Amino acid sequence: MTWLVTGGAGYIGAHVVRAFRADGIDVAVIDDLSSGKAEFLVECVPFTQANLLDTDATRRALEGATGVVHLGGFKYAGVSVERPLHTYTQNVSAMVSLLAAMEEQGVGNIVFSSSAGVYGTPKDEVVTEQTAPDPQSPYGESKLIGEWLLADQAKAAPLNHTSLRYFNVVGSGDPTVYDASPYNLFPIVCDLLTQGKVPQIYGTDHPTPDGTSVKDYVHVADLARAHVAAARALDSGKTLEPVYNLGSGTGTSVREIMDAARRVTGIDFTPTEGPRRPGDPSRVVASGELAARDLSWKNSYTVDEMFATAWEAWPKA
């Protein structure tokens, strides 16, 4: 049983690789290192440096594989509005190439890293799998199209699949692997505090208990274990739901994260406050009930633990 992790040199992918190995499952990686980091790779794990658009290289990387965890792609929702063609090429055309290579190699299992971005800005305060998708960026649209591709391919060829949708991935399960995204809240706060600067809260007039927006945050180690559970289920022949939300059902406010940062780092700071950013929802969280039922999944970290692991892994030099 060997699983190929696409994007396995990225922040999430590197954690998925480590989770598979910790569970005794052989794994290989394909990544073009456009955003992944070579230092996140595990030395003894077979690695192919290639873009998934290179179908021949992808086919070779799939030799001997039982299944695929598909994390590779372009992940920046905001930037995708400015670069729609690039986003669709890396997230849709690349998946077509991957599925073609899988069919040629007879690989019939895939766990797709989708996104809660498919929901856009939902009216439901707690998002379930029955919440209607309404993506509001090329990124979200590309993830939804990826789910459609899986469903359509499964009608035409042997393919067991499931897609995992989640919001904000945070923390670290390995002090050598960290989130380097310039757009995510945790690395932004870590970077500013490291530089001796003060983080900012955008919007303190939301209809929430402390006035700041509430969102779902999932620890990357919990997320990685969900991918392992899904892979094991598919490999055993179990039929899974086409999509699962990975969420807490409650969420965490921006101010609660700032308070956690103060406690964890010991840096006494008061965040500055600014106006809301356009389109920023007041409260969006996801229910993880289906994932708990079928994948024995739960969000097991407190907000302090989430920030503590992110801070430990963040490069200070």
From TrEMBL:
InterPro entries: Epimerase_deHydtase, NAD(P)-bd_dom_sf, UDP_G4E
Keywords recorded for this protein, A-Z: Carbohydrate metabolism, Isomerase, NAD
Broad class of enzyme this protein falls into: isomerase
Catalytic activity: UDP-alpha-D-glucose = UDP-alpha-D-galactose
Domain NAD-dependent epimerase/dehydratase intervals: 3-247
Domain of life: Bacteria
Involved pathway(s): Carbohydrate metabolism; galactose metabolism
Pfam families: Epimerase
Enzyme nomenclature, EC number: 5.1.3.2
Known cofactor(s): NAD(+)
Gene3D superfamilies in the cross-refs: NAD(P)-binding Rossmann-like Domain, UDP-galactose 4-epimerase, domain 1
Family (UniProt): Belongs to the NAD(P)-dependent epimerase/dehydratase family.
PANTHER family according to UniProt: UDP-ARABINOSE 4-EPIMERASE 1 (PTHR43725:SF53), UDP-GLUCOSE 4-EPIMERASE (PTHR43725)
Name listed for the protein in its UniProt record: UDP-glucose 4-epimerase
Source species of the chain: Kribbella sancticallisti
Protein's gene: galE
